[in-house]
Protein backbone atom coordinates (compact mmCIF):
# COMPACT_ATOMS: atom_id res chain seq x y z
CA UNK A 1 0.00 0.00 0.00
CA UNK A 2 1.28 3.36 -0.88
CA UNK A 3 1.51 5.99 1.74
CA UNK A 4 -0.46 9.11 0.87
CA UNK A 5 1.93 11.92 0.27
CA UNK A 6 0.59 14.67 2.50
CA UNK A 7 2.68 17.75 2.40
CA UNK A 8 1.59 21.23 3.29
CA UNK A 9 3.44 24.25 2.17
CA UNK A 10 2.40 27.75 2.84
CA UNK A 11 1.66 29.52 -0.29
CA UNK A 12 3.94 32.37 -0.88
CA UNK A 13 2.20 35.57 -1.92
CA UNK A 14 4.46 38.51 -2.09
CA UNK A 15 3.51 42.12 -2.58
CA UNK A 16 6.45 44.45 -3.03
CA UNK A 17 8.65 41.74 -1.58
CA UNK A 18 6.55 41.34 1.64
CA UNK A 19 5.37 37.85 2.44
CA UNK A 20 1.63 38.53 3.05
CA UNK A 21 0.68 35.10 4.41
CA UNK A 22 3.50 34.93 6.94
CA UNK A 23 2.76 38.42 8.18
CA UNK A 24 -0.92 37.64 8.41
CA UNK A 25 -0.14 34.56 10.51
CA UNK A 26 2.12 36.56 12.81
CA UNK A 27 -0.63 39.17 13.15
CA UNK A 28 -3.19 36.47 13.97
CA UNK A 29 -0.81 34.94 16.51
CA UNK A 30 -0.33 38.35 18.09
CA UNK A 31 -4.08 38.90 18.36
CA UNK A 32 -4.63 35.44 19.89
CA UNK A 33 -1.77 36.00 22.34
CA UNK A 34 -3.19 39.37 23.34
CA UNK A 35 -6.66 37.93 23.82
CA UNK A 36 -5.19 35.07 25.84
CA UNK A 37 -3.37 37.52 28.15
CA UNK A 38 -6.43 39.71 28.51
CA UNK A 39 -8.76 36.84 29.29
CA UNK A 40 -6.56 34.80 31.60
CA UNK A 41 -4.13 37.21 33.24
CA UNK A 42 -4.96 40.89 32.84
CA UNK A 43 -8.74 40.72 33.35
CA UNK A 44 -8.63 38.80 36.70
CA UNK A 45 -5.87 41.14 37.88
CA UNK A 46 -7.93 44.23 36.92
CA UNK A 47 -10.98 42.74 38.62
CA UNK A 48 -9.04 42.01 41.84
CA UNK A 49 -7.45 45.46 41.69
CA UNK A 50 -10.82 47.22 41.29
CA UNK A 51 -12.38 45.21 44.11
CA UNK A 52 -9.43 45.96 46.44
CA UNK A 53 -9.51 49.64 45.49
CA UNK A 54 -13.23 49.82 46.30
CA UNK A 55 -12.69 48.03 49.63
CA UNK A 56 -9.74 50.31 50.36
CA UNK A 57 -11.77 53.51 49.93
CA UNK A 58 -14.72 52.05 51.84
CA UNK A 59 -12.51 50.99 54.77
CA UNK A 60 -10.69 54.33 54.67
CA UNK A 61 -14.05 56.12 54.85
CA UNK A 62 -15.16 53.91 57.76
CA UNK A 63 -11.87 54.63 59.52
CA UNK A 64 -12.36 58.35 58.98
CA UNK A 65 -15.88 58.19 60.44
CA UNK A 66 -14.70 56.09 63.40
CA UNK A 67 -11.79 58.46 64.05
CA UNK A 68 -14.14 61.46 63.99
CA UNK A 69 -16.53 59.63 66.30
CA UNK A 70 -13.66 58.84 68.71
CA UNK A 71 -12.44 62.45 68.66
CA UNK A 72 -15.98 63.70 69.29
CA UNK A 73 -16.50 61.28 72.19
CA UNK A 74 -13.12 62.18 73.67
CA UNK A 75 -13.96 65.89 73.52
CA UNK A 76 -17.34 65.21 75.12
CA UNK A 77 -15.72 63.17 77.88
CA UNK A 78 -13.16 65.90 78.58
CA UNK A 79 -15.93 68.49 78.71
CA UNK A 80 -17.92 66.28 81.06
CA UNK A 81 -14.85 65.72 83.25
CA UNK A 82 -14.14 69.44 83.39
CA UNK A 83 -17.71 70.41 84.17
CA UNK A 84 -17.88 67.80 86.95
CA UNK A 85 -14.34 68.23 88.23
CA UNK A 86 -15.54 69.14 91.74
CA UNK A 87 -17.74 66.04 92.02
CA UNK A 88 -15.09 63.69 90.64
CA UNK A 89 -12.46 65.05 93.02
CA UNK A 90 -14.85 64.94 95.97
CA UNK A 91 -15.54 61.25 95.39
CA UNK A 92 -11.81 60.49 95.38
CA UNK A 93 -11.21 62.12 98.76
CA UNK A 94 -10.90 60.14 101.97
CA UNK A 95 -12.63 61.34 105.09
CA UNK A 96 -10.23 63.22 107.30
CA UNK A 97 -11.59 63.71 110.82
CA UNK A 98 -9.34 66.64 111.69
CA UNK A 99 -10.08 68.43 108.47
CA UNK A 100 -13.79 67.82 108.98
CA UNK A 101 -13.64 69.14 112.54
CA UNK A 102 -11.98 72.27 111.24
CA UNK A 103 -14.66 72.67 108.58
CA UNK A 104 -17.52 72.01 111.03
CA UNK A 105 -16.04 74.32 113.69
CA UNK A 106 -17.72 77.27 111.96
CA UNK A 107 -21.08 75.82 112.88
CA UNK A 108 -20.58 73.52 115.87
CA UNK A 109 -18.16 72.21 118.41
CA UNK A 110 -17.46 68.64 117.36
CA UNK A 111 -17.02 66.39 120.39
CA UNK A 112 -16.41 63.05 118.74
CA UNK A 113 -16.56 61.20 115.44
CA UNK A 114 -16.65 57.42 115.52
CA UNK A 115 -16.54 55.13 112.54
CA UNK A 116 -19.36 52.57 112.64
CA UNK A 117 -18.99 50.52 109.48
CA UNK A 118 -17.98 50.54 105.88
CA UNK A 119 -19.91 48.91 103.05
CA UNK A 120 -19.79 48.72 99.28
CA UNK A 121 -22.44 50.96 97.75
CA UNK A 122 -23.73 50.51 94.19
CA UNK A 123 -20.73 48.35 93.15
CA UNK A 124 -18.29 51.21 92.62
CA UNK A 125 -18.52 53.18 95.84
CA UNK A 126 -17.61 52.76 99.45
CA UNK A 127 -19.99 54.07 102.08
CA UNK A 128 -18.51 54.65 105.51
CA UNK A 129 -20.81 55.53 108.38
CA UNK A 130 -19.74 57.71 111.29
CA UNK A 131 -21.58 58.81 114.41
CA UNK A 132 -20.81 62.39 115.27
CA UNK A 133 -21.61 64.16 118.51
CA UNK A 134 -21.30 67.89 118.77
CA UNK A 135 -22.60 70.98 120.51
CA UNK A 136 -24.54 73.66 118.70
CA UNK A 137 -25.96 76.93 119.90
CA UNK A 138 -29.18 76.80 117.93
CA UNK A 139 -30.79 74.63 115.22
CA UNK A 140 -29.73 77.32 112.74
CA UNK A 141 -26.15 76.12 113.14
CA UNK A 142 -27.33 72.68 112.08
CA UNK A 143 -29.14 74.05 109.02
CA UNK A 144 -26.10 76.12 108.03
CA UNK A 145 -23.87 73.08 108.51
CA UNK A 146 -26.01 71.00 106.14
CA UNK A 147 -26.04 73.80 103.57
CA UNK A 148 -22.26 74.12 103.80
CA UNK A 149 -21.74 70.40 103.11
CA UNK A 150 -22.22 71.28 99.42
CA UNK A 151 -18.89 73.04 99.54
CA UNK A 152 -17.02 70.42 101.55
CA UNK A 153 -14.27 68.64 99.67
CA UNK A 154 -15.66 65.13 100.23
CA UNK A 155 -19.17 63.75 99.85
CA UNK A 156 -21.05 63.57 103.13
CA UNK A 157 -24.66 62.80 103.83
CA UNK A 158 -26.42 63.59 107.08
CA UNK A 159 -28.64 60.68 108.03
CA UNK A 160 -30.89 59.38 110.76
CA UNK A 161 -30.89 59.00 113.70
CA UNK A 162 -30.54 62.69 114.54
CA UNK A 163 -30.86 63.57 118.15
CA UNK A 164 -31.09 67.06 119.66
CA UNK A 165 -30.78 67.25 123.47
CA UNK A 166 -31.14 70.65 125.04
CA UNK A 167 -28.65 71.51 127.77
CA UNK A 168 -28.44 74.67 129.82
CA UNK A 169 -26.35 76.64 127.35
CA UNK A 170 -26.38 74.66 124.16
CA UNK A 171 -27.84 71.73 122.29
CA UNK A 172 -26.10 68.38 122.11
CA UNK A 173 -26.44 67.04 118.61
CA UNK A 174 -25.86 63.43 117.65
CA UNK A 175 -26.19 62.37 114.07
CA UNK A 176 -25.09 59.84 111.54
CA UNK A 177 -22.75 60.92 108.76
CA UNK A 178 -22.31 58.85 105.64
CA UNK A 179 -19.15 59.36 103.65
CA UNK A 180 -19.12 58.26 100.01
CA UNK A 181 -16.02 57.65 97.95
CA UNK A 182 -14.84 55.59 95.01
CA UNK A 183 -13.98 52.02 95.84
CA UNK B 1 28.12 28.05 -13.76
CA UNK B 2 29.57 31.38 -13.08
CA UNK B 3 27.65 34.17 -11.36
CA UNK B 4 28.34 37.77 -11.89
CA UNK B 5 27.01 38.69 -8.37
CA UNK B 6 28.78 37.76 -5.20
CA UNK B 7 26.64 35.56 -2.91
CA UNK B 8 25.08 37.25 0.11
CA UNK B 9 24.96 35.35 3.41
CA UNK B 10 21.38 34.12 4.02
CA UNK B 11 20.15 35.14 7.53
CA UNK B 12 18.72 32.43 9.77
CA UNK B 13 15.66 34.60 10.56
CA UNK B 14 14.36 36.98 8.05
CA UNK B 15 14.18 40.69 8.86
CA UNK B 16 10.37 40.90 9.05
CA UNK B 17 10.16 37.76 11.20
CA UNK B 18 12.69 39.30 13.58
CA UNK B 19 10.56 42.45 13.81
CA UNK B 20 7.46 40.41 14.58
CA UNK B 21 9.25 38.42 17.27
CA UNK B 22 10.59 41.60 18.90
CA UNK B 23 7.14 43.20 18.76
CA UNK B 24 5.45 40.14 20.29
CA UNK B 25 8.18 39.85 22.93
CA UNK B 26 7.80 43.50 23.96
CA UNK B 27 4.01 43.06 24.08
CA UNK B 28 4.33 40.04 26.40
CA UNK B 29 6.72 41.98 28.65
CA UNK B 30 4.26 44.90 28.75
CA UNK B 31 1.31 42.61 29.54
CA UNK B 32 3.22 40.93 32.34
CA UNK B 33 4.50 44.26 33.70
CA UNK B 34 0.98 45.71 33.74
CA UNK B 35 -0.37 42.61 35.48
CA UNK B 36 2.44 42.73 38.03
CA UNK B 37 1.78 46.41 38.64
CA UNK B 38 -1.90 45.66 39.29
CA UNK B 39 -1.02 42.71 41.55
CA UNK B 40 1.40 44.83 43.58
CA UNK B 41 -1.18 47.63 43.92
CA UNK B 42 -3.80 45.05 44.99
CA UNK B 43 -1.46 43.61 47.60
CA UNK B 44 -0.69 47.12 48.90
CA UNK B 45 -4.39 47.98 49.02
CA UNK B 46 -5.13 44.75 50.90
CA UNK B 47 -2.31 45.48 53.32
CA UNK B 48 -3.73 48.96 53.96
CA UNK B 49 -7.24 47.52 54.36
CA UNK B 50 -5.95 45.14 57.04
CA UNK B 51 -4.17 47.96 58.80
CA UNK B 52 -7.31 50.17 58.61
CA UNK B 53 -9.47 47.36 59.95
CA UNK B 54 -7.12 46.88 62.89
CA UNK B 55 -7.26 50.62 63.58
CA UNK B 56 -11.07 50.58 63.38
CA UNK B 57 -11.25 47.73 65.90
CA UNK B 58 -8.87 49.57 68.26
CA UNK B 59 -10.84 52.81 67.90
CA UNK B 60 -14.12 51.00 68.55
CA UNK B 61 -12.66 49.51 71.72
CA UNK B 62 -11.48 52.98 72.76
CA UNK B 63 -14.96 54.41 72.02
CA UNK B 64 -16.55 51.69 74.17
CA UNK B 65 -14.11 52.58 76.96
CA UNK B 66 -14.94 56.28 76.61
CA UNK B 67 -18.65 55.45 76.78
CA UNK B 68 -18.19 53.45 79.94
CA UNK B 69 -16.09 56.28 81.44
CA UNK B 70 -18.85 58.71 80.52
CA UNK B 71 -21.48 56.48 82.12
CA UNK B 72 -19.35 56.21 85.24
CA UNK B 73 -19.07 60.01 85.46
CA UNK B 74 -22.87 60.23 85.17
CA UNK B 75 -23.15 57.61 87.92
CA UNK B 76 -20.86 59.65 90.18
CA UNK B 77 -22.75 62.83 89.35
CA UNK B 78 -26.07 61.14 90.15
CA UNK B 79 -24.75 59.89 93.48
CA UNK B 80 -23.38 63.32 94.40
CA UNK B 81 -26.55 65.15 93.42
CA UNK B 82 -28.66 62.54 95.20
CA UNK B 83 -26.66 63.04 98.42
CA UNK B 84 -26.91 66.82 98.14
CA UNK B 85 -30.66 66.72 97.46
CA UNK B 86 -31.21 64.34 100.37
CA UNK B 87 -29.19 66.62 102.66
CA UNK B 88 -31.28 69.56 101.56
CA UNK B 89 -34.51 67.62 102.08
CA UNK B 90 -33.30 66.52 105.49
CA UNK B 91 -32.58 70.13 106.45
CA UNK B 92 -35.98 71.30 105.20
CA UNK B 93 -37.93 68.52 106.88
CA UNK B 94 -36.21 69.08 110.24
CA UNK B 95 -36.64 72.83 109.91
CA UNK B 96 -40.34 72.42 109.09
CA UNK B 97 -40.86 70.11 112.04
CA UNK B 98 -39.10 72.41 114.47
CA UNK B 99 -41.08 75.38 113.10
CA UNK B 100 -44.24 73.53 114.09
CA UNK B 101 -43.41 73.83 117.77
CA UNK B 102 -45.68 76.52 119.21
CA UNK B 103 -44.29 79.19 121.55
CA UNK B 104 -45.78 78.04 124.88
CA UNK B 105 -44.20 74.59 124.45
CA UNK B 106 -40.52 74.08 125.20
CA UNK B 107 -38.62 71.11 123.86
CA UNK B 108 -35.92 69.34 125.83
CA UNK B 109 -35.07 66.57 123.40
CA UNK B 110 -36.05 65.62 119.90
CA UNK B 111 -34.99 62.44 118.11
CA UNK B 112 -35.50 62.00 114.40
CA UNK B 113 -35.32 58.56 112.89
CA UNK B 114 -36.23 57.17 109.51
CA UNK B 115 -39.88 56.44 110.35
CA UNK B 116 -40.04 57.77 113.86
CA UNK B 117 -39.98 61.06 115.74
CA UNK B 118 -39.71 61.23 119.51
CA UNK B 119 -40.23 64.59 121.19
CA UNK B 120 -39.65 65.37 124.85
CA UNK B 121 -40.77 68.74 126.20
CA UNK B 122 -42.70 70.83 128.66
CA UNK B 123 -46.17 72.24 128.11
CA UNK B 124 -48.14 74.54 130.44
CA UNK B 125 -51.31 72.46 129.94
CA UNK B 126 -52.31 69.33 128.09
CA UNK B 127 -54.94 71.38 126.21
CA UNK B 128 -52.31 73.72 124.75
CA UNK B 129 -50.38 70.70 123.51
CA UNK B 130 -53.49 69.02 122.15
CA UNK B 131 -54.64 72.20 120.41
CA UNK B 132 -51.39 73.58 119.04
CA UNK B 133 -49.00 70.70 118.58
CA UNK B 134 -50.96 67.51 118.18
CA UNK B 135 -52.91 68.39 114.98
CA UNK B 136 -49.85 69.09 112.81
CA UNK B 137 -48.12 65.97 114.13
CA UNK B 138 -51.19 63.88 113.39
CA UNK B 139 -51.33 65.28 109.88
CA UNK B 140 -47.75 64.20 109.20
CA UNK B 141 -47.48 60.88 111.00
CA UNK B 142 -49.69 57.83 110.74
CA UNK B 143 -49.54 57.05 114.45
CA UNK B 144 -49.06 59.46 117.32
CA UNK B 145 -48.90 58.65 121.03
CA UNK B 146 -48.40 61.22 123.76
CA UNK B 147 -47.59 60.62 127.43
CA UNK B 148 -47.94 63.45 129.97
CA UNK B 149 -46.32 63.62 133.43
CA UNK B 150 -47.38 66.40 135.79
CA UNK B 151 -44.60 68.47 137.34
CA UNK B 152 -44.53 70.07 140.79
CA UNK B 153 -45.39 73.51 139.33
CA UNK B 154 -48.50 72.17 137.56
CA UNK B 155 -46.97 72.11 134.08
CA UNK B 156 -46.54 68.90 132.20
CA UNK B 157 -43.57 67.13 130.75
CA UNK B 158 -44.56 65.12 127.74
CA UNK B 159 -43.20 62.44 125.49
CA UNK B 160 -44.62 62.32 122.00
CA UNK B 161 -43.98 59.21 119.90
CA UNK B 162 -44.82 59.59 116.24
CA UNK B 163 -44.54 56.85 113.64
CA UNK B 164 -44.73 56.68 109.90
CA UNK B 165 -45.89 53.33 108.60
CA UNK B 166 -44.17 52.09 105.50
CA UNK B 167 -46.47 51.76 102.50
CA UNK B 168 -47.03 48.09 101.73
Question: How would you characterize this protein structure?
Answer:
The complex is a heterodimer of chains A (about 180) and B (about 170). Chain A folds into two domains: about 20-85; about 90-180, Ribosomal protein S6/Translation elongation factor EF1B (Alpha-Beta Plaits, 2-Layer Sandwich). Chain A has helices at about 20-85, 85-90, 95-105, 140-150, and strands at about 15, 20, 110-120, 125-135, 155-165, 170-180. With about 180 residues, chain A is α+β, with helices and mostly antiparallel strands. In chain A, the strands form two sheets. A four-stranded antiparallel β-sheet of chain A has the order 3-4-6-5. Chain A has a two-stranded antiparallel sheet with strand order 1-2. The longest helix of chain A has about 60 residues, at about 20-85. Chain B is of the alpha+beta class and about 170 residues long. Chain B has two domains: about 15-100; about 105-165, no CATH class. Chain B is built from two helices and four strands, in the order H-E-E-H-E-E. Chain B has helices spanning about 15-100, 125-140; strands at about 105-115, 115-125, 145-150, 155-165. A four-stranded antiparallel β-sheet of chain B has the order 1-2-4-3, with helices on one face. In chain B, about 10% of the residues are buried. The model of chain B has no long low-confidence stretch (mean pLDDT about 90). At the A-B interface, strand 2, helix 1, helix 2, helix 4 and strand 5 of A face helix 1 and strand 1 of B. Strand 5 of chain A pairs antiparallel with strand 1 of chain B.
Amino acid sequence: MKKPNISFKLPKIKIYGIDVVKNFLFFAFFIILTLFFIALIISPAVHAFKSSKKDYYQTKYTLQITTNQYKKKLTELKKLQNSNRKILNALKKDFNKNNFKLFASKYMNVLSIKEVNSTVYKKNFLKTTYIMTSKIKSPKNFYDFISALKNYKSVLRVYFPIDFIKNKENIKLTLKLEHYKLK
Amino acid sequence: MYSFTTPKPKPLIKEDTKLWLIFIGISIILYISFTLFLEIKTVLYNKDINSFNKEIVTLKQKIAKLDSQKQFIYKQKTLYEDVMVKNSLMKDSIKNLLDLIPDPITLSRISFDKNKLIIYGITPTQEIYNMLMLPPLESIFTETKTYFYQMNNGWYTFKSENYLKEKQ
